[in-house]
Design brief:
- By secondary structure, this protein is α/β, with parallel strands linked by helices.
- It folds into two domains: 286 residues, Metallo-beta-lactamase, Chain A (4-Layer Sandwich); 66 residues, no CATH class.
- 40% of the residues lie in helices and 15% in strands.
- It contains eleven helices and twelve strands.
- Strands 1-2-3-4-5-6-7 form a seven-stranded mixed sheet.
- The radius of gyration is 20 Å and the shape is globular.
């Protein structure tokens, strides 16, 4: 499956059996689930965010805005044209500088499908990504956008059924209600989506020098995808990771667990004061990276021996004990536990099993 949002849609539509006909819920009060607000991270660096958590729809990626001397560098662009328009509006509320560059951290659409609106606002905008991210955005991994609106419509219908089911717990009902509230806007926003691939690509590194806010782009290895870009501002000590780090519930999708661990280890060597994850709250220490390293390592340690012993993937899912990882990331919250399984654990088990068996992990196909 192509990314974390599609994983949840499939969890909603496929993993849950229908519960019968239910009365339609009354319409939610009009609101924009794609709205953005701005936080100043440090000198010349801003976060334009949709949500402080990774488990509330529409699961929009964080946007980082850097004020260089002669213009802005923007990291990621939201997941739909409405996102792009809201991002432009938010940026224009705190600066009149033009945007010169847009960087994609990876190909997942919630980080780039708003780019067309940014380019309308700033026609000279140049877009940068790794070589592999551009290949993914111009190839099969991005094909899901053609049916993404329909998938969200199915998820919305399933969420309404779960709310109507008297057996649904209060904690789970709140999660389904969040989908119902955002769902109509998501269905509308994801019609006619079009990817805007990068026109500048790099393999390992690319620098955007500046006397006030120099910026370094790095490909540290495969992690959440096969083309993750890391953005480092050495003067401001800000590290933007894309979905290599997601808070508080990580995403795995078509990730590479072994390489991911190496990349997380390299992130820890940066002297950052602020780490901006692909989703969720800015981190000011390495504790959350350590949690991710511990979780990935714990799952790999259980899965690899089973795979080497010839145990099937389905049977491996049944045998692994994920309770300790679930407790660390989700505690006893039923919706967070569900999201952790849909976004992270199932994909991590699957991809760890494939790695142990020497099987390929294909972007846009694997991941749960």
């Amino acid at each position: 499956m192509v990314n974390h949002r599609r994983q949840l849609l499939c969890a909603v539509v496929l993993l849950l059996a229908p519960v019968g006909t239910s009365a339609a819920l009354p319409p939610a009060a009009a609101f924009d689930p794609f709205a953005r607000h701005t936080e100043r991270i440090t000198d010349r660096v801003y976060l334009v965010t949709n949500s402080p958590t990774s488990i509330i729809p529409p699961f929009e990626g964080n946007v980082v805005v850097i004020e260089q001397s002669d213009g802005l560098v923007i990291v990621d662009a939201g997941g739909a044209p409405i996102s792009g328009r809201n991002i432009v509006r938010a940026i224009r509320n705190f600066t009149s500088l033009p945007a010169r560059y847009l960087i994609y951290t990876h190909y997942h659409g919630d980080h780039n499908l708003g780019a067309g609106e940014l380019r309308k606002a700033w026609p000279g905008l140049r877009i940068i990504s790794t070589v592999q991210t551009r290949a993914n955005m111009t190839g099969p991994p991005m094909a899901y956008v053609a049916t993404y609106s329909e998938g969200n419509a199915d998820a919305l219908a399933s969420a309404r059924q779960r709310i109507a089911d008297p057996k649904t717990s209060a904690g789970m009902r709140a999660g389904w209600q969040a989908i119902v509230r955002a769902g109509p806007a998501m269905v509308a926003a994801y019609r006619g989506l079009k990817a805007t691939p990068a026109d500048i690509v790099f393999c390992d590194e690319l620098n955007l020098p500046d006397p006030l806010a120099p910026l370094e782009l790095r490909f540290l290895g495969r992690a959440n995808t096969d083309g993750d870009a890391i953005v480092w501002l050495p003067r401001q000590r800000v590290l933007a990771t894309g979905d290599v780090v997601v808070h508080p519930s990580p995403y795995a999708s078509a990730s590479y667990p072994t390489d991911w661990l190496r990349v997380l280890g390299r992130l820890k060597t940066y002297d950052f004061a602020f780490l901006v994850p692909g989703h969720g709250q800015v981190q000011t220490d390495r504790a959350y990276i350590d949690k991710l390293i511990g979780a990935i390592g714990a799952v790999r340690a259980q899965v690899a021996p089973l795979a080497h012993a010839g145990i099937s993937l389905d049977e491996t899912y049944k045998r692994v004990d994920l309770s300790s990882v679930t407790a660390v990331f989700a505690g006893g919250d039923p919706w967070r536990r569900f999201a952790l399984d849909a976004f992270f654990l199932r994909a991590l088990v699957s991809n760890s099993w494939k790695e142990a068996k020497g099987l390929p992990i294909t972007q846009g196909v694997d991941g749960g």
